[in-house]
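User: Predict the complex with P-hydroxybenzoic acid.
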Amino acid sequence: MNIKSWSRMAALGAICALAASPVLAQGTVKLGLVGEFSGPFAEYGQQIYGGMKAYMKLHGDTVAGKKIEVIQKDTTGPAPDVAKRLAQELISRDKVDMLVGFGLTPNAMAVAPVATETKTPMIIMNAATSSITTKSPYIVRVSMTLPQVATPMAIWAAKNGIKHVYTAISDYGPGLDAEAAFSKAFKAAGGEIVGSVHMPLKNPEFAPFIQRIKDAKPEAVFLFLPAGEQGVAFMKGFKERGLAEAGIKLIATGDITDESVLQTMGDPALGLVTSFHYSAAHDSPENRTFLKAYTEVNGTKLSPNFMAVAGYDGMAAIYAALQKTGGSTDGDKILAAMKGMKIDSPRGPISIDPETRDVIQTMYIREVKKVGGKLENVEFDKFPDQKDPGKM
Ligand code: PHB
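Assistant: Here is the predicted structure with P-hydroxybenzoic acid placed in the model:
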């Protein structure tokens, strides 16, 4: 090739590149991931993102002709002001088409008005206070609500002869929801709430609360704590202060025995009965596919839990919605596409309630058992097609 034809080729290349760039920009769907990636709740973001990556590994990074790009931002923990600023920057500077993630309720609450103002779909992959979805018509939640989880636990407890329960909860949205829903359903089934403690979300010191529960001598304690290290610390205190020996049973939402901490918790967790929408021990082809993909992408350092599943299902909802809209990211079109959507989740079949934009799903009652030398949440009873009782 002589110099002249070479430079003609180069010029042609430059024109092609220029012409291609707007096409490329149009051909991208940007997801702004707002999550907790550092501090005591750092696993929330990692689990959610890990689940999203597992979905992308199985289904590719292109949908309806558009490339999916994830831009990750760290709230550093429960930090509503940071979450709001990050969401605003993602929309105005990074031009994201959707906001996703949100492990903790205060962060999701702070971002809801931003989603409304900018008509940006906001896909919640954990934050589980019932009222969150009422804070913006652009929110869809693919995780759970605490009333949805706590109500079956109350019904199961009453049915199994437990009459007097003390409630112990983390003192913020999901804890207050869990306490209200448990108490309502338990009283309706003939039970009595004999006392309650509210424990701080940040740096809780459990010993005095556990002692107070022991002194009250209830038949059982119903517990909600945000998933992670707090559950391990509570279980340790429960064991050390001899509550089980004093005849006090423990029942909880499955946040306590989530797979990321279950082995660390060890044998004191054996026999613990919880209600929840996901167990890694759930026996289905969809769950096996999910677990395999999760480990292939993320390694074995994190054991996938319910937040990872919500990240995975959130991506399934986004892919299916984009297919329906032909790749359009228009907020109203995406919302319309997600309402009523059905997904074969690793947790079992789920659908998005078109009225509340929350998940309708099966709630399982599980017991911690040792299976093949490892602790597992073994499902033994279920409540199918549960809507969020917090909105009924
Ligand atoms: C929440 O902040 O909404 C939240 C956090 C952790 C959980 C459940 C709910 O395990």
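Residues 10-25 have pLDDT under 50 and may be disordered.
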